[in-house]
Amino acid sequence: MPDILDVFEIKEEKNRVRIRFSSAMGHIDTACAAVLLFLKSRGPKFFPHLFAVNLGLREAMANAVRHGNKYDLGKLVSMELDISRDQWIRMKISDQGPGFEWIHVRDQVAPDEADHGRGMSIMRTYFDRFSYNKKGNILYLEKQVL
Question: How many other C-beta atoms can be found within 10 angstroms of the C-beta atom of residue 12?
């Protein structure tokens, strides 16, 4: 049986950073650190949004690894952050899983004692807009930079 390659790639452009990695939770810290460094290097207007971006990315990438790709190292998680349009941070997080029917759970609120199920609440609280593709394996997050 061939060895599964452990992938972690970053491609940075002037107003965009793209990251893709094998479905291992350990890559999430590295990806988030790279995104925060990218935003910090683009100026102080992004500083107030670092917490929200970090929290949203962590939640989305953890869900992609855990629920989307089921920890399959042969499947990748991809993330793109774009700041090319003035006043907006746009992110796209995708996995290679079967997706889910997000429309049925988008308004659910997890009980305080729950240890999971808070993703939609996080997205609603910290982002101006969020949506999924029809299949449910690509998440779009948008945060206005004021």
Answer: 14
Query: What counts of helices (H) and strands (E) characterise the chain?
Result: 3, 6
Q: Which H/E stretch holds residue 137?
A: none
- Residues 95, 36 contacting (CB under 8 angstroms): no
How many of the other CB atoms lie within 10 Å of CB of 51?
11
The pLDDT score that the predictor gives to residue 106 is 60
Q: Which residue is listed with tokens 């990315």?
A: 57
Contact 69, 5 (CB under 8 A): no
Give the three-state DSSP class for 37.
helix
43: left (phi over 0), alpha (psi -120 to 50) or beta: left
- Going by C-alpha positions, the residue among 101, 68, 82 that lies closest to residue 12 is 82
pTM for the full predicted model? 0.88
Q: Is residue 27 predicted with pLDDT exceeding 80?
A: yes
Q: Tell the residue number behind the tokens 């206005």, with chain if given.
A: 144
